[in-house]
Structures
1.
Amino acid sequence: MSADPSIPPAALSGEVRLPEKLAEVEPVRSVRTPIRLEYDFIPGSASSGYLNAFADRKILGQRSPVDGAVFVPPRGVDPRHGAATPDYVELPDTGHVGGFCVTRLPIPGRDDLEIPYVSAWIHLDGADIGFLGLVGGIDTSEVRMGMRVRAVWKPDDQLGRTAENILHWEPTGEPDIPVTAAGTNAWHAKQAAESGEQD
Amino acid sequence: MAERLRADLVLEYPFTRTTGPVIGAFLTGLREGIVLGIRRPDGTVLCPPTEYDPETSAPLTELVEVGPGGELVSWTWVDPPRSQSPWDQPHGLGMVRLDGADTPMVHGLLVDSPDELSVGMRVTARWRSEREGHIADLEGFVPEGAGQ
């Protein structure tokens, strides 16, 4: 038997029949089903190195032994090749916006975020992937791919071993990176340039 | 060697789901202090009710009252309950086949000790006084005659 897609499913078209005593009451139409997962998060060695460095106002990545790609945050491995990445690289706190999202609705549990706000993939100078950050110090309508940014840190006496040390990323005022070389395009643009040099 | 780092990480999703006509009716019943099952074409009754017949997939529409008494089909003991459990005391979890139903439903068994539980025993529903249309409106089951 083949189903005719123009015929809606029959299931919800029929009226349900209720016992007499429920005939006059207001029916329930929705139900709250909150889900909550509580983790005790303990970082591994690569993440620990990354977080500890934050206390000294440093951002650490790790370099792939295969092709030199730099990952931040470091995870101890180049996931493309399954290769361990034991070598840390210190990265500057400047880069560009690779991609971004303007959020205009509040998130339950994040009362600290004033809407609208911009979350972005920040591609640090010298890194080959982006990591997430908030963009501030600029109207949300002015944020663009390729915009140059620098970190705005908490005061030194408030630094901890956490990525929360970076309050947000603000524009440096430098010229934008071309979109064709920004964000996820950056690695490919770099590869193309290097192979061009070899030719 | 730096000291080991740790942090609390909480993921929370405040879902509200729409219920549809059958689950909505089941929850309406709970709010009103009765348990509903749903009748299949062969006359047997599923409780909790489903929107579709599990064998033929035909839509089911005839909701019928079952319980409040029933038979304990199987059970286990929970001690201690986990932090987000609806119950804060050690309790049973049981499959209860309510009178008028042909399938059992799972819920808490509110007794002080596993010694009070046995397969085949009679149990009956204990309701919360304030109900909102949620499975927790039914506080659990207690031995029949134990006082509700």
2.
Amino acid sequence: MPTDEDLVGQLARGDEAALRELLSRYETALSSFLYRNTGGRDVEDLYQETWIRVVRSAAKFDRSKRFSTWMFQIAVNLCRDWRRRPPPEPQPIRDEPAASADLARREAALDADRLLASLPTEQREVLILRYYHDMTEEQAAEVLGCPRGTIKSRAHTALASLSRILDAESGGRR
Amino acid sequence: MSGIDRLREHADDCDDCRSRPLAIDRIDAVLASSRVDVDSAALSRHAFAAVRPVLHTAAIPHFWRRVAAVVAVTLVPLPAILAYDTVLLRGLHMVASTLLPGTMATYVVFTYASMWLLLFAASYASIPILMARNAPRPS
């Protein structure tokens, strides 16, 4: 089975099968990263743009590096550019009927999304990469282009903020 | 490692977290409930359609670099082949001169050499032409 790095080499030669394989290997990881990073907005555009950039830069890819790290670096930069864009027009809220179990799941998910959204971008990126993408501090530091110490302090600040929010909410409910 | 293991790994390794323990289990419970409401397979299908023309365009410079490399490699033995053929043609001219008048022998060898050169040039020219048929084309 070819490695990701082999597949990028084939991508540089215009191999469609290599593109299909890389897409299937990373579709879940990349789409969930983009979804959580942007709160579910413009995921399709960002997903396509990430792959377009991967293909355009495939010939320049340094094979001594991990493909996943490189791809997430591209995705992180795209998300940062996306955040600088002016906000879209507000959409009307659709009122869909839902089963109570489904509703409970949705509310819990909304809670997680709301908590993530409450964090500053730098802290959210660290938490998403460490928690949902199982990255080590070194890998997250490489993706985000900062020292390992910065990752550690951002992770701590993020967790402390989440703790405070959860404490405040449970205190408020009592 | 799962998400909570990463959080615990951080909490064990972080001086600040050790001095003031955080509600890691509660944070994990909330973060674990996060749902990703996207059809990633559909995203990949759309991305493939959008990326395909870019893939072919990006592959063109690589393709022509390969053609240049192949032509360069085939040119390496050319001096040796030309030297060998010159010796061969001289020998042929000598043999022809013993059987035919001098002018006629030169004419026969010259005609033969011209044909041979033409075929040789066509063979070399066909390398990039045949490779170009497989060149990636932007759709």
3.
Amino acid sequence: MADSYSGATSDTETDTDAQTVVADDRFFDDTVLRRVGVAVSSLFALGIILLLTYILTSQISYGLIPTILPQFIGAYGLVLGIVVASSVLSVTAGIFVGLARVSKTNITRGISAAYVQFFRGTPLLFQIFVIYFGIPTLWPGTFPIQGWGLPTAILSLTLNHAAYVGEAVRGGIGAVPDGQMEAARSLGMGYVQAMREVVIPQAWRNALAAIGNDQIILVKDTSLLTVIAIPELIQQFRDVNSATFDPWTPLLLVAIAYLSITVPMGRLVEYLETRADWGGDTNE
Amino acid sequence: MNNAVLQFDDIDKYFGETHVLKDITLNIDTSEVCVIVGPSGSGKSTLLRCANRLEEIQNGEIRLDGQSISAVDADVNRLRQRIGMVFQSFNLFPHKTALENVTLAPRKVKNLPDKEATQRAENLLDEVGLLEQSSSYPNQLSGGQKQRVAIARALAMEPKIMLFDEVTSALDPELVGEVLGVMRDLAGDGMTMMVVTHEMGFAREVGDRVVLMADGRIVESASPTSFFENPSTTRGKQFLSKLL
């Protein structure tokens, strides 16, 4: 892919803009550029492989793994649960935020814009604190919910990521040509029906990459929950590290745990994108 | 007058300060093919878009079979089912196959059973010569094929009148013929049609009446023969002289 790309551009450049490219061409023609690319990326990969090999052979206490594995598996299950709940909720809520953002009603549009401004404009960590420490104090008397940590986790991730999903959906709707709505309406469909049948399926496809990206960030954002003592993955790292002074063994498990969620998620998004291919090119 | 399917009664349309349609009165009779011609910016497309209320008018009234379309409380969704519209830019639904494009509205708006909707859609695609492409997506069709699917899609709602908004303007010249051919057949079947076009050959051959618009007004309304051979207004003469 990199090959054909650099080949194609430099061909046209040399044809059309010979004057300016000539000087560069002497040192950086196609072949040189390609070799530099291969060399740099290979060196980088080699460095990483050496580092990893060193860590895996000398820094990991494999004897420790069976002891700490259960707590990591527990944390993994918890993170997965939080991710599934917040993902479903934030994408669902985000679709409505996106619809509200393109509403013709000023109030709806204004309120949803303010919502996005706030939740996108303040750190997730701050929002976690507001919900975890702030909300219970507003209650007259004792706060009735025991174990407010898990609800805080799901609520904060949902509210925060619904703002991002909302923006992705808004962009996705904006990229659907007006003619689509007009064609649907001219056939007698109502606004809601036209949105559901015609505009949203196309907006969804347009927004899919951005939503997928955001949901992967959501997975990693669960690490912030360590500040309210949710027993998630980073919390396990801290426990093990403070007890054994061994950073690399728990870090390895943390990396495997996160990647085993985020990599399949990336694949899922790719699959959904190719499924919404509609017989070829992206745009009509 | 009693025969009129679509009536424009002294309508005015503004885009902000700009007065784009001025005192338009026009009746389109059953089975009539009314061709609207005129220079760009004369308001012909806007007039067509007012007819199914994609644009709002500020004065006057538009009626379909005597029922007001322009009234505030008009049931637009119901009225639009009886007005088919075909656009310059096709506006086919890219996420649906040709067949699904045609069945969508009958299924969702008229609640027609899938089987019946499919049957009807296949007949229509057959009529426009595209039965073999029924499972193709719009991206896989040529411009002329897309526009023929768009015509089938509009016909699937069994409209009383069809509006054509410069439907051949976005097509490669060699594809214009196949679309005009479908429209000619449709006119032959007695469909009432309002056609905004730059295709003077079509206007002359298929049109029952030619309406010339300029600067938001109707300046001439005549049979194709008298319009093209002997236009009665200077604007008409000017317009025709520029075509040659």
4.
Amino acid sequence: MSSETFRVAIVGSGPGGLSAAAHAAKLGVSHVLLERADHLSDTIYKYQRGKFVMSTPDILPLRSDVTFGAGKREGILANWDSQIEELKTNVRFNAEVVAIEKSQAIFKLRLADGSVVEAENVVLAIGLQGNLNKLSCPGSDLPIVQYQLDDPEQYEAETIVVIGAGDAGVENAVALAKQNSVIIINRESEFARVKQGNLTLILNAIEKADIQCYYNAEPVRVEAKAIILTTAEGEARVPCDRIIARIGAAAPRKFVESCGIIFPNAERTSLPEVSSTYESNVPGLYIIGALGGYPLIKQAMNQGFEVIEYILGNKLEPADEPLLQKKFAGLGGADVDAIITEVRTAIPVFGNLNPLLLRETLLESDVHVIKKDGVVFKRNDYTSSFFTIMRGRVDIQFNALDPTQVITLPTGSFFGEMGLISGRRRSATALAATDCVLLETPRRTMLKLIKSVDSVRRTLDQTAIMRQVQTHLAPGVSVADLQALVNTAELKRFKPGDVIFNQGDKGEDMHLIRAGSCTVSMRVGGRDIVLSYVPSGNYVGEMALLSDAPRSATVKAAHATETIQIQGDAFRALLNSQPSLKEKVETKFRQRIMQNEQMQRRPEAGGIIQFLIEQGVGEGTDVLLIDESLCVHCDNCEKACAETHEGISRLNREAGPSFARIHVPTSCRHCEHPHCMADCPPNAIHRAPDGEVFIDDSCIGCGNCERNCPYGVIQMASPPDAKFNLFSWLLFGKGPGPGDEMAFDEANYANQPHGEKQKRAVKCDMCKDIAGGAACVRACPTGAAMRVSPEEFMSVALLGQ
Amino acid sequence: MRQSILVHRNHFFLKIALLVSILAIVAYVWHQPFERPNGGTWLGYTLGVAAGGIMIWLSWFGVRKRQYGIGILNLEDWLSGHVYLGLTLAVVATLHAGFQFGTNIHTALYILMMIVIISGLLGLYFYIRFPLLLTENRRGMTTEIMVQQIADLDRELRQLAMNLDDATNAVVLKATQETIVGGSVVQQLRGYDSSCATAMARLFVERSESNGEDARRRQLLTRMVRKEELLKRMRRDVQLRCLLKFWLVFHVPFSIASLVALLVHVVTVFYYW
């Protein structure tokens, strides 16, 4: 029995726990660090050997007595081991806590070996990984099943089944596939949950048959040397030598609840709530790290440091306090807590965020103090951030033709949310109606919030639907009149090529396209003829509703598309109550019938639309096309590109398909939702205010964007050597001409510095830094090269010419 | 779709060219010098300065074309202006000369200049006509695809020929190894190859007697005909692309020669004044 009562007992020696223990040791506070395993930080210890550990969020300063930076697993662990020892931290290994009881302000921690540790305070830093989800089917306790992969190189020439389609499963499968035959089991029909980089890896591996994948499959039973699955085709027996199940982790709820801690809801992923000093509903019992909702190493380490200070009764500014202070400097020196409280109360969409998440969101946001009539953003700007109004009011000019028509948004509301959904230009101008204070939150941050906080997503979705209906379908109709329609409306997502509805189908629902675009086609004489291309901001499906007939055409998603599905009845009711709207919709209806007639007589125009959609032009915002009836194949476009961009051309004129005199060269289309941006570790790919997607100097040359681009327009290249100037070449024939690379100079080779030059991703930046526009188009002597936006180019009027 | 350089900017440069030409002609008709019209009158000097200016501006195109990402005008504007002002030059220079020609450096300049203008007209014709011919000839295929298809056909041909008699096999093998597309400038410009190894092989197979190998022979022939069709298209492609560049062989050297002649012309005129 322990005779000593510690001031603080820390359970779990992960990043949070060891940082707490280190700080306690440094301050001389009596403490004990209890670790179930025989080494520190079991979760990271069990990472794949050689795994590179990141230190996000970069903006957050580390506050701990133990150091940490991004690096290899081994280095990080060795560093912690030595520092924990140096600080003379009181660690007890092989000390699994099985119960925590509290009597008269003293906690009794019962260990697995029967001994008891007493402490005034307890810090629970057990994370989630200690409680991995296990297979629930019979035979899951057989020795061929494991839940961890330490070193993938340890296995050779085995048949290994990996269960789980998350990042851990995919990483394991890909690493094992190097010297084993790997089968991955995915419960769903796609890999929806993994990081973009992992997605590319696994899909490539499956395509190359390096890894075999069972989709929509679930394990039923494990045998000594096989696993039985249910698949779409029935049961399948997969013989294997080893099964690695990576099916996530959850809070060890039973244990945590037995300590008296309350969970906010019954969901499996739910986590206990903590105060701003990390104290749970049990006084003296603190929770830090992943169990408290903070899965990142740096966050957990900071919390470990802070929790010790809080236990000692010290007030402590959070680590991000100076950063936030700086951020709020423009607000007249009010204190950070007061401002955070103001944000929480004034802005409903952030109201439900826990204090730490809110701080983090604010840290990544910008505070703008704008005088009356100041412009927040203009129509057609290419920004995608999200604005919330903290103080004052904002006017939205939604009508391009009449700037006097405004909607005034009060304090607490948000705008710019369309930027989160579609990557197109701003559809309205926002002006400060009074002096106001705005928070501008970047798109990435908001998307993360939407994904992780349900209340944010719900609020945004509903408001967004209402606004989009108001903007694109029923301008001038009040919110009250639209409420019934919006309440029954639903968001629908479509993959490229998915049918939204088929010709001849019964159905009256309308679809307002809020992101992406569609094609409308009709079957005439046994052939599908594309009638039109419908970009976001338009609706389809009103014809069946108005004419009381089956669908007259097929509508397909041209690429990833989101629509608002509006119930036919609700829309009909709205039309009946709004005569002017009815008039407008019917005019459009007549125009569509006429247009469809015209297009049926000119199938070649439909053919062009179809061709361009197949080339993925529909998801671009600015596409380079070449009119083959004018192109003299001089390649001056390529030379211009190379000469204005460090000698490397970002376009390949001849490559790429052609149809009916239109040639789509291999060149960036500046997609609405750029695939390249999806997984850029240094976040080096941006969208400029005019829509150019470009890569900045922080590129580390990892090649993710090159792999992610479906159009092959990104290349990895190192800048070539400098060349002689134009006149030396023109008059004296020195060096290579425009667009050509400097030849290898053997005589001079010995004098040059050796070693491989750093390769970087290069792509078209639409000549954003060059006055006058795209060099390729300006250098085309015959005017064959053109840059177009797909909505414009695929409009029927233009194709008619 | 886009418009050609001739109609570019609603014939802006055509209008300028016409204006300059008409002004020059009207002035020439109106002007009655003591002697017959020549480059030495005040109008002659004016036209001469204009013609010289235009020549230098036209030559600058060679530099401007290689300067990228600068200037207010696009290269298309420059080319449109280059074409129309080049034609104006013929008018202005002829009037400057007052239709007097002889065996001297001045007429030499005139002839050099006219060679440049005529070769330019030829180039213009190519630029207007060939893009469509190229597109139609390619039928949506790139060079790479055509080469790939020919390589595939060659592989099949070799396989089929392996089971035939030695003579046929040798001819087919030769066809897969020695068929040439392009080559010297003359070969490129000709657009066909009278000694094409594939055509020879086809003729050989057609004429040789069948020894009960009809099916295989037919397969061989269909593939060879397909390959010949592809070769024809590729050779036509090479020919057109070669022509698109070939006229410059006259246009550029003669324009440099005329610049030199212009310098000599100006110096001698002032020297003998």
